[in-house]
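Obj: model holo form, ligand = nicotinamide-adenine-dinucleotide.
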Amino acid sequence: MDQIEGKVAVITGAARGIGFAIAARLARAGMKVVLGDIHASALDGALKNLQGQGFDAHAVQTDVADFGSVNRLADAAYGRHGAVHVLHLNAGVAAMNSLFDDEVASWRRVIDINLMGVIWGIKAFAKRMIDGGENGVILATSSGAGAEGTSYNTTACSATKMAIVSVVECLHGQLRDRKAKIRVGLVFPPLTDTQLSGGTTAKQVEGLLNSRGVPAALVQPEQVAELILDGLRRDRFFIRTGPAENASYFNSAMSSEFFAWSERVIRGRAEAQMNDSGPDAYLW
Ligand SMILES: NC(=O)c1ccc[n+]([C@@H]2O[C@H](COP(=O)([O-])OP(=O)(O)OC[C@H]3O[C@@H](n4cnc5c(N)ncnc54)[C@H](O)[C@@H]3O)[C@@H](O)[C@H]2O)c1
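Output (holo structure tokens):
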């Protein structure tokens, strides 16, 4: 979708981090942006920031875990602009969970926000976008956990990020069957310097991953926004970082070891299924 100027984008989880960075980047590219986020004061700050730069921005406090709330976001976007061309279902949370205790709240929270948030977003917007008859794109933010799928210490998060891949693949097939003018894409951000991990800084997460043999490198949300915009313009389904994107958008922050590791995990997983062997060869 290369013609985005003057079109309308809705982004969830847009008050900060990657969501704010892509909202700002799309606004700078000439889009009208509608920001949805649960965090009222951060959302207000994000809105003032964008409006202060002269952009056409609007904000709706939204809890993506609540279907009614996501429908109200859609009503507000359509009420204001009459159309939505880019929907980026980006809101997400992270949590450490144990499979060996009775704690249930963090599991429900992560699944409700990360997975159901994407499903509710599709249900609230997709039909209206199809009926609008214009070209459009629905993006959902997955994670390295959805590609390599091996972060087994954050099980709920990993499970939701893999499930998002499945949901978006299904959506792709259903849109294709309907001959709809709506495309879909999956965003796989690299390790990004945001507040996703709460009290643990992204720098600390980078150190932890490196100490476990994962050669991850920390990047900035504004760089991820460039990757996403490029993916949007080039109609990529898997918006992820290969060596070319690493050079173009991340100042080659990721080493050749990182790409070798990622390839080993992704191919190792497929081969383990074909060879009927277990996950030890690729699980880190
Ligand atoms: N930061 C990373 O390294 C990284 C890596 C891979 C994937 N991701 C994914 O990128 C997305 C954005 O994360 P981020 O890193 O910018 O984190 P962040 O915490 O900075 O931003 C997430 C935003 O989502 C909002 N949010 C949380 N719960 C919500 C809810 N119920 N309804 C609406 N909004 C809600 C938060 O208020 C926040 O503004 C997430 O889906 C995350 O899983 C991040």
